[in-house]
Amino acid sequence: MSSPPPIAQGGPATGAESSSARGSRARQRADTREKIFEIALREFREVGFAAAQIDRIAKAAGVARGTFYFHFPTKDDVLLEFARRINARVARRVVSIGESRPDLWELLTRANDAILDEHSRVGETGLLGDLFALYVRRPHDLHDPSHNLPMLTDELAGSLRAAEERGELHSSMTPEQIALVFMTSLFGIYTRFSRGEDLRAACAGLIDLFVKGLRSSAP
Length: 219
Fold this sequence. Notes:
By secondary structure, this protein is mainly alpha-helical. It has nine helices and no strands.
C-alpha cells in the first residue's frame, strides 16, 4: 500500500506577506531611482548637462542602461525631477508668505527672493543655467506626476487669488495664468542675467511692471 503524498509545507502567500513583498520592491525601486538621480546630478555638475552620458551614469550607479530609462526616459527628466524638488521648497515658502497677507508688490518680491535663494544652493553656474532654460522650455512639465509635491505656480496663484479677492488685482487673466506668465518671465530674466546687481534690478523692474499692469485696470 503506497504512502500518502507528503503534506506541502507552507502554502500560498498571505495577504500580509504579499503586501510586504510589494512594499519591499517599491522601496528598492525608489532607492534605485534616488541613486541614479544623485549620480546623474553629480555627472551634470562635473562635465555639464550637455556632455553628460547616460552610459556613464548607469555604470556609476551599478545599473543597466535600460534601468536608467525605466526611471528617467531622458536626461531632461532627471533635470525636471531636480527642478520639481527645488520648486516644491519654494512653493512651501510662498504659502508661508501668503499667510501674512502681503500686498501685491511684496508678494511678488518675496516670491522672487525665495526662488533666487533656493536656486543659489544649486551651486554650479552651468547647471543653474540649464535649470532656468528648462523652466522656459518646458514650464508645464514642472508639475509632479505623483502629485506629492506642491507646485510653485499653483501656490502663487492661490496668493494672487487672495489679492484679487481683496480688490488689489484686476485682470482679464485668471490668477493661474498670471502666475504662469510671471514665473516664465522671471525664469527668462534668470537665463539672461548672471547673479548680481543686474539680475536684481531686472527682477525688480519686472515686478514693478506686473504690479502696475495688474492694478491699472482697477475701477
